[in-house]
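Fill in residues.
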């Protein structure tokens, strides 16, 4: 699966890399709710994708979580996995890796003129540097 290609296409179609704007355009419902130790999760009800984002996160964390869950909504529509606060970035689970890759590609996208950036999210999330450097210095 070529995730970068998928993300580029998405960003070009919607002319933004803002996950909230893309979600709205795609009919994906995003809700901010109290979730305790869960960053967010994605579910599907009656063919509608719903993204739940923990309301107590910082804005940057919410943007990253929304992007990660959008990755699931697009790449794994029938799977529902909670995105946990601890250790998820080091998960070996294929779908978690793919959702993280989707989120990073989206937030580092150069397909738009004024992209929102993930720098602060990287700091607050402690995304494994090797995940990121692979993208910046391939
Ligand atoms: Zn996930």
């Amino acid at each position: 699966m070529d995730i970068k290609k998928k993300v580029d296409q998405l960003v070009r179609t919607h002319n933004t890399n803002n996950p909230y704007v893309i979600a709205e355009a795609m009919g994906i419902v995003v809700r901010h709710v109290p979730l305790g130790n869960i960053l967010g999760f994605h579910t599907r009800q009656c063919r509608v994708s719903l993204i739940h984002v923990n309301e107590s996160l910082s804005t940057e964390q919410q943007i990253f979580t929304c992007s990660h869950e959008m990755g699931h909504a697009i790449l794994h529509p029938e799977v529902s996995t909670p995105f946990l606060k601890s250790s998820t970035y080091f998960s070996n689970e294929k779908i978690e890796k793919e959702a993280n890759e989707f989120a990073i590609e989206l937030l580092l996208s150069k397909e738009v003129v004024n992209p929102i950036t993930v720098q602060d999210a990287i700091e607050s999330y402690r995304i494994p540097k090797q995940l990121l450097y692979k993208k910046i210095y391939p």
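The radius of gyration is 14 Å.
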